[in-house]
Amino acid sequence: MPQSALPQNPIVLIPSRLASTRLPDKPLADIHGKPMIVHCLDRAREAGFGRVAVACGDQAIADAVRAAGGEAVMTDPAHPSGSDRIFEALTRLDPKGEHDAVINLQGDLPAIDPKVVRAALAPLADASIAIATLATPIVERHEIDDPNVVKAVLSLEPGQSIGPALYFSRRPVPSGEGPLWHHIGIYAYRREALARFVTLKPSPLERREKLEQLRALENGMRIAAAVVDTLPLGVDTPADLDRIRQVMAK
Questions:
Q1: 69-119, pLDDT tens digit by residue?
Q2: Is residue 232 a contact partner of residue 113, using CB atoms and an 8 Å limit?
Q3: pTM of the shown model
Q4: Which residues pair with 188 in a beta bridge?
Q5: Which of 84, 193, 206, 233 reaches 20 to 30 Å from 131, CA-CA?
Q6: In this structure, are strands 10-16 and 71-74 parallel, antiparallel, or unpaired?
Q7: CA–CA separation, 178 vs 81, rounded Å?
Q8: How far apart are CA 172 and CA 239, in angstroms?
Q9: Residue 52 burial (CB count, 10 A)
Q10: Quick one: pLDDT at residue 233?
Q11: Which of 166, 154, 245 shows the shortest CA–CA distance to 205?
Q12: How far, in Å, are 73, 125, 165, 241 from residue 128 at the CA level?
């Protein structure tokens, strides 16, 4: 694959808003003296990319980020998805188009390994790939039938660590012998791919599976995934918050 296809000036954008039914004001939840969103900002900085910013849906988040020395940009609080939020943030932060790719990092992964963030960019070394993402092998049997664990259908030969993503589902697919892949919802978009994606209407399979990434596949956009050996711990509930506090205390 031609090295020249790998984006040379990516930006990491972290979409964040306060609205959360299971954990109110989640981005501002305290974890050892810092708001969760600031921990996410720190992990993204540690990944070594030149620029990291938080795309904020609420002023309180922007205030917390700026108090920690981070870059924040206010966006429309009514955006339906994180991809819409980061596209607005990108156009505000970089109107001249200097950043050629965007890594969309979730704002509820305060303990993510920075190496995992970096890995999200790797599939874009292939010029035919518009969007890159991550996956890890499912090792816990209870995850196989859990609809909250999204499965990525990857075309991978043994020993390969990057391959095309052909489908995503809440069901355990594909059938037959072989690994099942737990999709990790971190994306790296070529700039022109993100600009196209946000103009597309929700697609039939997207509505059926309730998975936004299917919109890209249904419109002919190629996605590839890099396999990593670490599943980042997300925070969605008070119990998750307690667990992450324990993990990050070590």
A1: 999 999 999 998 999 999 999 999 999 999 999 999 999 999 999 999 999
A2: yes
A3: 0.94
A4: 103, 132
A5: 233
A6: unpaired
A7: 33
A8: 26
A9: 23
A10: 93
A11: 166
A12: 31, 9, 13, 39
